[in-house]
Design brief:
Length: 400
Amino acid sequence: MIYPSLPPASYTETLWFDLERERLFREHWILVGMTQQLPSENCYITREVGGIPVLVQKIGGQLRAFKNACPHRLCPIQTGAFGNRKLLCPYHGWSFGQEGRLRGIPLGTGYNFSEEDKVCMDLQTYPLEAVGDFLFVNVSATPKPISWQFSDDMLLLLTELSRFLSREVSYTSWTGKYNWKLNYENIIEGEGQHVPFVHQTTLAPSFKSEGSPVPPSHLFRPDGPLGKIHLTEMPDWAHSPIPGLDDNGKPKKIDVREVSDIKRRRIAYTPRWHSERMESCDRGWYFACHIFPNVNVSITSGEWCFLEQFSPLAPDRTEYHSWAFSARLKEGVRPMPHLLWGFHHNEKRVVDEDVVVFEEVQKVLASRPDNAGYLGENERTLAAFGRYYLQCLKKGEDYA
């Protein structure tokens, strides 16, 4: 069966980009970071969500999310990507308290604001949800609960993974000259079809399942914390449901929870020097959580984890956010930042191989082809993503 792909214009035109911001990124819960990045009072991270500047900061021991704009003259409260600093506008010195309430105005008598005037000068707040260590923000004027967007299985998995990940994290970001959807589609494609060709010497050797016997899983054993969640063990597609189709194979309205999924597959496993220093949970397996609309969490052999996010900056420009973790270290083992650096360095090599392809595909899309390709039976998750994407943008009537 052939599924249609998204219209080429959705990867290249400003109109589509603006609709994405308004109807997708501003209506859904969007990952903004990890609690590991906010360990102490006044630590902050700044992000952009649907074009809106967002600030997440630890204040009074609590994590809060605000619009990163002083109500006075709209200067960002925090101008760095992350750091440690009080809620103090760097432009005119206005300060704000724990709930974003206006606390102090230097030369306040000169402004001649009444107490009624000051009521509307607090920082704008946004709902913030911590699912384990994963932080999500919703900038909608009428946000839905996070359970509307993610299944119980996904919320449980992120919570349990957080117990397994180390408190040390390596984070970086960079930009690429391609549309963000190319990156996410590459992650969610059916069985990693591109891996043997794009990642011949980096990732492909690990995806072979031959090797030493696989130790029992901690997380996914039948009586374990995730023993009863629904996941697809790749490459078995014979009995997996087809998102976005009814029992007769006809297109139907897609529930957003259908376009995030959890996949797992056997891989080759060879213990390394660091293996016995970690509380590993799933050796001999690779699993990935595809989190709509633009996040992937992958764990290899239960020893290292990569969190990736593909944020749109323009129709043809993407900001790639990357976090690297190890499994939680055993008691008495000292942190190993050099190990995280090595993990991240190797992951960047894999990403760079993908980016070469993305940027070439983007050039072809910019030439205004008739379509963006064809999807086969094993790419049904891509088709479901496309259907829900168009459903969000109110452009899905002819996408069947």
